[in-house]
């Protein structure tokens, strides 16, 4: 990235922080276009499986997102103002507000662009189709893919005890789940290369069925007849955990 572009992004980030600091009873559209994250992915990868932020607090920053739970006890999916936990049995459970997270990413989902895709295509082709519609690779995007999937493969994670291992060790024994001809919603983000470490560049999707009873972190999929909605998010705000200080 050129220096001027970096300064532009720094300015945008600072503007986002300033806006979040304003006291107001009604949030402006600008405040709602914030990608809000708690903790960093690199911290989670290193075994930072504890955190202080509750899902009740997180809901004040968005109605749509992905994340995990204390001890990496499953995969989090937030959609339509509801937070779900897909546990290691592959089933989805509603999440109480006092439940805490070690890592989560949310935003208020307000689509800027939508498209319908009614051809069978795998996840990689789906991502390429979405890529073709994006105005730039340098913005974070929240993405919802809703409809019928010919195939879906997800994983979840069993809860870990202290001392926590690195996440890569945990994922070696991840339980996986397969769905055929399933209706549901993929909730996720496409993030720019410069967010590496703080988060993961590229696409990251979680899935939940239309019945909201199963899902997980998406490993593979085949979309069949889906609506794709993309929310451009031009601010990025991160709260870092202090529980280990
Ligand atoms: Zn995930």
Describe the fold and architecture.
The protein has 245 residues and is α+β, with helices and mostly antiparallel strands. The chain is built from six helices and 15 strands. It has helices spanning 3-21, 29-32, 41-45, 55-58, 123-133, 167-171; strands at residues 34-38, 53-54, 64-68, 75-79, 82-86, 92-94, 100-101, 104-107, 113-117, 121-122, 141-155, 176-191, 202-209, 215-232, 235-239. The structure holds zinc ion.
Bound molecules: zinc ion
Distance between the termini: 33 Å
The computed structural class is: alpha+beta
Kindly report the spatial arrangement of strands forming the biggest sheet.
6-5-4-3-8-1-15
Radius of gyration, in angstroms, nearest whole number: 17 Å
Net shape: globular
| Oligomer state of the chains in this structure | single chain
Classified by CATH, the class of the largest domain is Alpha Beta
The named CATH superfamily of the largest domain: Hypothetical protein, similar to alpha- acetolactate decarboxylase, domain 2
- How many E-type strands? 15
Number of helices: 6
Q: Whole-number average pLDDT?
A: 90
Hey, roughly how much beta strand do the residues contain?
Answer: 35-45%
Whole-number tally of structural domains:
2
- Biggest sheet features: 7 strands, mixed
CATH domain topology of the largest domain: 60s Ribosomal Protein L30, Chain: A
Reading the helices and strands in chain order gives HHEHEHEEEEEEEEHEHEEEE
- Segments where pLDDT lies below 50 for 5+ residues? 1-7, 10-25
* Second rung of CATH, namely the architecture of the largest domain: 2-Layer Sandwich
Helix content: 10-25%
């Amino acid at each position: 990235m050129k220096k001027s572009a970096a300064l532009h992004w720094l300015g945008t980030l600072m503007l986002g922080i300033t806006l979040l600091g304003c006291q107001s009873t009604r949030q402006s559209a600008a405040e709602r276009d914030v990608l809000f994250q708690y903790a960093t992915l690199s911290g989670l990868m290193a075994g930072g499986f504890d955190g202080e932020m509750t899902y009740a607090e997180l809901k004040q920053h968005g109605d749509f997102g992905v994340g995990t739970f204390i001890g990496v006890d499953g995969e989090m999916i937030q959609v339509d103002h509801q937070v779900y936990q897909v546990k290691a049995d592959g089933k989805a459970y509603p999440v109480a507000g006092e439940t805490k997270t070690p890592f989560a990413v949310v935003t208020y989902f307000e689509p800027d662009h939508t498209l319908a895709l009614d051809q069978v295509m795998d996840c990689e082709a789906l991502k390429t189709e979405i890529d073709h519609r994006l105005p730039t690779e340098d913005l974070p995007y929240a993405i919802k893919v809703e409809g019928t999937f010919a195939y879906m493969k997800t994983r979840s994670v069993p809860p870990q005890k202290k001392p926590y291992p690195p996440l890569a060790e945990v994922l070696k024994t991840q339980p996986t789940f397969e769905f055929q001809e399933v209706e549901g919603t993929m909730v996720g983000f496409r993030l720019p290369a410069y967010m590496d470490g703080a988060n993961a560049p590229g696409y990251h999707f979680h899935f939940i069925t239309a019945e909201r009873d199963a899902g997980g972190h998406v490993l593979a999929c085949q979309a069949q007849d889906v609506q794709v909605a993309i929310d451009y998010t031009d601010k990025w705000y991160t709260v870092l955990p202090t529980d280990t200080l």
